[in-house]
Design a protein that fits this description.
CATH architecture: Orthogonal Bundle
CATH superfamily: Homeodomain-like
CATH topology: Arc Repressor Mutant, subunit A
Distance between the termini: 68 Å
Length: 133
C-alpha cells in the first residue's frame, strides 16, 4: 500500500514539474546550462520537448498514448530510433527530463533568492551612503 501511495505522489510531483515548466512560456524549452548534463546522443531536443508537452497533455502514467502520438507525429516520420522505442525506454527518458526540470526549478529558486539578497544589500548600502552624506 505504501508503494502505491509513493507512486501516486511521484506522478503528482512529476505533473506539477511539467506544469511549472509549461507555465514559464508558450512551449516547453530547456535551459542550455542544464540540458547539456542530461543530453542524449539518441534523443533530440525536439523529441524531448515533444515528449514533455505530450506527457503534460495525456498524463504522466499514460506512456502508451505517448508512444502512439510519437508514431503518428509527422515531425518524427523519419526518426526510426524514436518511433521504435518501447514504453520502458520512453519512461526512462522522461525520468531524465523530470530530473532536468527539477534541477532547473531548484536553481531558479536559488538564483531568485540570491538576487533578492543582493538587492537588499544594495539598498542597505545605499541607505548607509546617504547617512554618511
Amino acid at each position: 500500500m505504501e508503494g502505491g501511495e509513493e507512486r501516486l505522489s511521484n506522478r503528482r510531483q512529476q505533473h506539477e514539474l511539467l506544469e511549472w515548466k509549461a507555465s514559464r512560456g508558450l512551449s516547453i524549452d530547456f535551459s542550455a546550462v542544464f540540458y547539456t548534463k542530461f543530453k542524449s546522443k539518441l534523443f533530440t531536443v525536439e523529441a524531448d520537448r515533444f515528449m514533455a508537452e505530450r506527457v503534460l497533455k495525456v498524463g504522466t502514467s499514460n506512456i502508451t498514448k505517448l508512444r502512439e502520438e510519437i508514431r503518428d507525429e509527422p515531425m518524427f516520420r523519419f526518426d526510426h530510433y524514436l518511433r521504435t522505442r518501447n514504453e520502458t525506454e520512453l519512461n526512462k527518458r522522461m525520468a531524465s527530463i523530470y530530473k532536468l526540470i527539477e534541477k532547473e526549478k531548484d536553481s531558479e529558486g536559488y538564483e531568485g533568492r540570491k538576487r533578492e539578497r543582493l538587492w537588499e544589500e544594495e539598498v542597505a548600502e545605499e541607505g548607509a551612503c546617504r547617512k554618511r552624506l
